[in-house]
Amino acid sequence: MLKRCLLLAAIVAVWNGAPGFGDDKPARPNILYIMSDDHAAHAISAYGSKINRTPNIDRLAKEGMRFTNCFVTNSICTPSRAAILTGKYAHINGVPVFNRFDGSQPHLARHLQQSGYHTAVIGKWHLGSEPT
């Protein structure tokens, strides 16, 4: 009886630790891109704030990747968002002021989708078009 229990335990242990059948793809990291509006980086404790406590964002920053340097050349919300998403200056991406964002051009979400990621927008989009 003891041998059967040990054999069963060994089978269960191996089965639980075995990769799924046909699972050839390496695991990809999850990506959570947080872009807030009119928000200074130093207002988050992961970036040094002593006033605002942001423990959940701090945990994400500690366990993942944290960007420490990002600039756009436009101080208006819509062109700034378009510049960050496309990597292009506002006069190149077609959003110099409150214009409609052309989602057919290459942008971060499109690159992620082409790499097999599912993307979503939660909160303020503010680009005058539907997210793509």
Summarize the structure.
With 132 residues, the protein is mainly α. It has 5 helices and no strands. The termini are far apart.
Total individual domains: 2
What is the CA–CA distance across the termini? Answer: 60 Å
Continuous helix count: 5
Tell me, rounded to a whole number, the average pLDDT.
82
Order of helices and strands: HHHHH
The whole-angstrom Rg is 22 Å
Determine the fraction of residues in helical runs and give it as a percent range: 25-40%
Categorize the overall geometry. Answer: flat
Regions with little confidence, pLDDT below 50 for 5+ residues: none
Strand content: under 5%
* Secondary-structure class: mainly alpha
In terms of topology, how is this protein built?
Blueprint: H1 2-17, H2 55-63, H3 77-86, H4 90-93, H5 108-114
Structure description:
By secondary structure, this protein is mainly alpha-helical. The protein folds into two domains: 29-70, no CATH class; 71-132, no CATH class. Helices cover 35% and strands 0% of the residues. It has five helices and no strands. It has helices at residues 2-17, 55-63, 77-86, 90-93, 108-114. The termini are far apart.
Name the descriptors.
single chain; flat; 132 residues; mainly alpha; 5 helices
